[in-house]
Amino acid sequence: MTSPPRVLKHDALLLLAAFIWGTTFVAQRKGMDHVGPMTYSAFRFALGALAVLPLVFLCKLRPADSIPKKNTWFIVWGSGLAGLALFAASSCQQVGLLYTTAGKAGFITCLYVVIVPILGLFVGHRCGISVWLGAGLAVIGLYFLTIKESLTLEQGDLLELIGAFFWAVHVLWIGHMARRASPAQIACVQFAVCSILCFAAAGLFEDISLEAVGHAGFAIAYGGLLSAGVAFTLQIVSQRHCPPAHAAIIMSLETVFAAAAGWIILGETFSAGGLVGCALMLSSLMIVQLPPILSATTRGVTRPPKTDSLPVPVDHPLGQ
Q1: What is the rounded CA–CA span in Å between residue 187 and residue 78?
Q2: What is the mean pLDDT of residues 230-237?
Q3: Angle 304-313-295 (CA atoms, 0-180°, nearest 5)?
Q4: In a domain, 306, yes or no
Q5: Residue 55's closest CA among 180, 218, 271, 233?
Q6: Total of domains in the chain
Q7: Is residue 309 part of a domain?
């Protein structure tokens, strides 16, 4: 069982990932001024894969981190499935934004906070009351923070809801994979798979212009190097020690950071409801950290079977 101090350490890493993802919304909006959603995602995740690739070779140079041959195929297809879920989730999110408002998209997307523990019940995960209370506060906070008009399910809203389901699947699958393979390998393969699928979609539905990609270069670099290369890798590392539902609540705070970045960088203003939403979401983070309930949620996690398991060693450069 992971000790509370180590859980808190990895909670902090997840919070950093949420900060990066939140500020990346600004980069995505800027990048979409020049390229389509699939083109942006394709180059973003390709850059993310290249950023993580050196870490994959670094792991192979360390004897303690070598991967037994019997696990190679599991890593390939497992990380490939993670990439497929990532592609489905990010694509639904990006395309949905063409048909719905950013406020509705933010609220519906982060419903994965609730979907994760619900889906987790079907795979043997059990959550303490702190997780359910934190998830409830997070969803209420997201409502106050993002919803500016009546909530109706339109075409874009449906896409965002489907995307929320795939984000939940991605969180749960990463929680399973993270204890069985090197975080760098999982990240690199999933980014590569997602990028290939995005390039295929962009080739079918968008006009890819290298000149336009150049204009969006900074936004793509921010999304690729930080959001993909750093934040998603932090997610994989941290989910080795945090229950999926617990992690989902912390990662949902990206919405707060997105709102703050929009206010500071884009000049967007907070409404009174938005301030209430931020307060509720920050409260959800503190509630889920309560030590007595936190230990209960940690005990309730069903560990993967020992067969073909491959936990990252504690002295791994990404396993601290």
Answers
A1: 11
A2: 80
A3: 55
A4: no
A5: 233
A6: 1
A7: no
221 located within any domain: yes
Give residue 150's pLDDT: 65
Does 163 fall in a domain? Answer: yes
- In this structure, what token pair is assigned to residue 164? 């929320």
**Domain encompassing residue 283:** 4-61+76-299
Instruction: At 167, list the tokens.
Output: 């984000």
Helix residue spans in the chain (DSSP H): 4-31, 37-60, 69-96, 102-109, 112-121, 129-146, 155-177, 183-205, 210-215, 217-221, 233-238, 244-251, 254-265, 272-288, 291-299
Measured CA distances, 241 to 101, 276, 300 (Å): 35, 31, 13
Q: Which token pair is 65?
A: 């981190």
pTM above threshold 0.85: no
Q: Across all residues in the chain, what is the average pLDDT?
A: 76
Find out whether 55 and 65 touch, Cβ atoms under 8 Å: no
Distance CA 232, CA 24 (A): 12
Tell me the two tokens of residue 226: 């930080």
pLDDT digits (tens, 9 = 90+) for 266-302: 776 767 877 788 788 778 767 766 654 444 433 333 3
Other CB atoms within 10 Å distance of the CB of residue 316 = 18
User: On the CB side of 177, how many CA atoms lie within 13 Å of its CA?
Assistant: 29
